[in-house]
């Protein structure tokens, strides 16, 4: 079944409700095999790519905007999608792809990347990717730094029938492909941008922000459930049981007496 066919299976009432998804404290049971909890189980993790699996390459965005002659406040993909002709859209898309292809040759893995992925594989946690990149840089990273690991599905900006982040469609598609009856409520979205946090939150997933020198202002954003400075910090967090916004004011979705889904 094609991606476009699968996305049409999402109930309209679910999609319509996502923009008003309520703020709540997120919890998942420990994935350590000998730790028990009545919190809901973690059903998988979705990762962003640039700035999340590899170190940020923010210079790309400056170069892209210069190539397209647009202001730094203009979303690059939105700008391209609104160009008046197919020829103009193709030309602009090829310009930013050329910049991405050059940048991918200098990709560096995030600290703790392999350790986290080895841990998740050992624990049997499903992993997928949802990125605003196109496919070539994604495969370059996986082939060079994570050749032994499998991520399915891989959602890029060119996946047919799906809007790119911050739209939640990619994350919802992943949940649908994994056969999750509760949608994305059992997932965690790990990323480094507001697009990642908003896409995850509006899909119903918990969100984890990987901090860097440029995104500290998102630490207290309503769409951010937890912050880490290294990917392998997630090992202890997941083994002990994920709890979003420790000490925050969000209302938990459940207690030790039972989980209430909203």
TrEMBL record:
SUPFAM superfamilies: HAD-like
Pfam families, per the entry: Hydrolase
InterPro entries with a match to the protein in the record: HAD-like_sf, HAD_sf
Superkingdom to which the source organism belongs: Eukaryota
PANTHER family: HALOACID DEHALOGENASE-LIKE HYDROLASE, SUPERFAMILY HYDROLASE, PUTATIVE (AFU_ORTHOLOGUE AFUA_4G13290)-RELATED
The name this protein goes by in its record: HAD-like protein
Source organism of this protein record: Aspergillus ibericus CBS 121593
Taxonomic lineage of the native organism: Eukaryota, Fungi, Dikarya, Ascomycota, Pezizomycotina
């Amino acid at each position: 079944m094609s991606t476009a066919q699968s996305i049409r299976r999402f109930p309209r009432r679910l999609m319509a409700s996502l923009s008003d998804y309520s703020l709540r404290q997120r919890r998942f049971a420990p994935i350590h095999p000998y730790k028990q909890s009545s919190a809901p189980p973690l059903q998988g993790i979705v990762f962003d790519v640039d700035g999340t699996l590899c170190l940020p390459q923010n210079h790309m965005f400056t170069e892209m905007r210069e190539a397209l002659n647009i202001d730094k406040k203009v979303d690059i993909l939105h700008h391209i999608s609104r160009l008046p002709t197919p020829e103009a859209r193709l030309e602009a898309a090829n310009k930013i792809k050329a910049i991405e292809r050059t940048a991918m040759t200098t990709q560096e893995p995030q600290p703790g990347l392999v350790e986290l992925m080895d841990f998740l594989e050992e624990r049997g946690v499903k992993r997928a990717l949802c990125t605003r990149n196109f496919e070539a840089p994604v495969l370059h990273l996986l082939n060079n730094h994570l050749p032994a690991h499998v991520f399915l599905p891989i959602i890029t900006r060119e996946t047919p029938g799906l809007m790119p982040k911050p739209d939640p469609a990619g994350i919802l598609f992943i949940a649908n492909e994994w056969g999750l009856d509760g949608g994305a409520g059992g997932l965690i979205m790990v990323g480094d941008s507001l697009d990642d946090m908003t896409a995850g939150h509006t899909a119903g997933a918990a969100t984890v922000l990987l901090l860097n020198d440029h995104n500290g202002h998102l630490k207290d954003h309503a769409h951010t459930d937890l912050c880490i400075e290294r990917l392998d910090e997630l090992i202890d967090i997941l083994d002990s049981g994920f709890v979003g916004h420790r000490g925050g004011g969000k209302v938990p979705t459940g207690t030790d007496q039972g989980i209430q889904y909203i």
